[in-house]
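Incident log, structure service

09:12 report received: a user says their structure output differs between two submissions of the same chain.
09:20 pulled the input from the user's history:
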Amino acid sequence: MRRRRRRAGWVAGALVAALWVAQGASAHPDAMLFDGALRLAPGEAVARPMALHFHRLVARWTFDGPAADGLWLLVVPAEAVGATGSAPEDAWFAAPLTGDGRLSHLIDCCRDVAYRHLLLVLRNDGPAPVDVVLRAWAVHDDFAVVSARAEAGALEVPLALFILVGAAALTAAVRDRRRRDAGAAARGWALTVSAVLFAVATVTAATLGLAGALRYGGGPVDGMIAVLADVPVPGGLFGSRAAFLLALLLLAWVASIGAWSVAIGRGAHRSSRWALPLGAALAVVSLAGAVAMGWTYGGSSVPGALGVVLAAPLALSVGLLRGSAAKKPSGS
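09:34 re-ran on a clean worker, output below:
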C-alpha cells in the first residue's frame, strides 16, 4: 500500500510539472515570421504581426548580392500610428542588418497582460534596393518566464515539486538501514533507470544549448530556447516547442532523481560504487544549471533558489549515505 501511495505521489508530481509548463505557454505559441527571399525598394517596409509574451526573437539572414546600409529589423507596437515608418530609436527593439548575421533577443513583454500585439518590421532606409534571405521566429521563452516570475505559479509550482523530490531523496537516505537487504535486482534496475534518464536529459540539454549558441549567438541556456526555431519537435497542445520539450526534460530529470531515491532506499550505495557519484552528479548539475540560468537572465535569483532547493537535499543525502556505505564494503 505504501509503495502504491508513493508511486501515485510521483505520478501526481510529474503531471503537475507537465501541466504547469504547458499552461505557461497556453496563450503564447511560437510563430514563424519570415522565411525566404525578399526584395525591398528604398523606403519599402514589410511587417509581420505577432502576439508576444516573453518570446525570444531569433533570426538569421544573408544578402543576395552586396549588403547595403539602411536595412533594419524593428519590433514596434501594432497600434502605433504609421508603425512601419517608426524610426529605429522609437522601436522597442531595432537591429541593423549590415551584413550576413544572426540574432537572439528576448522581448520581455509583458508582465501586466497575457500578451501584446506587436509588429516585426523589415525596412529599407537605404538609397538602393536590397535582396535579403531572412528567417525569423518568435519562440516562447519559458526560462525567461520563470526567471522573471512573469506568470502565476512560475516560482511556486516548481518550488513545490522540487521540495517533494528533495524530500523523497532525503527520506530514502535517512531510512537506509531499514532496507539494506532489499533485492539486488530491484535496486539495480532503479539505478540503471536513473543513470539513463540523467544521461538523456543532460546530453539533450547540452546539445541543444551548444547548437543554439553556435547558430544564433548567446550562451547555452538561451541557445537552448533559440535553436527550437529549427528543431522539428511538436508544439504540443498550445503551440510552444519550448514548453513541450522542457516539460519532457523536466519530467526526465525528476524521474531520474526519483529512481535514484528508490535505488538508494534499497541499499544501492552498498552494492554499487557509482550510486553515490550519480547522486552527487544530479546535485551538481541541478545547481549549475540553475546558476547558469539565473546569470543568463540578468542575474535573477529565482533559478538559483530553485536549484538550491533541489540540490541541497541530494547533496545531504549523498553525505549521509557515504558514511553509511563506509560501514560495509561495497561491491563492484
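09:41 both user submissions now match this output. Likely a transient worker issue. Closing.
09:42 reviewer note: The CA atoms of residues 142 and 243 lie 7 Å apart. Residues 184-216 form the longest helix (33 residues).
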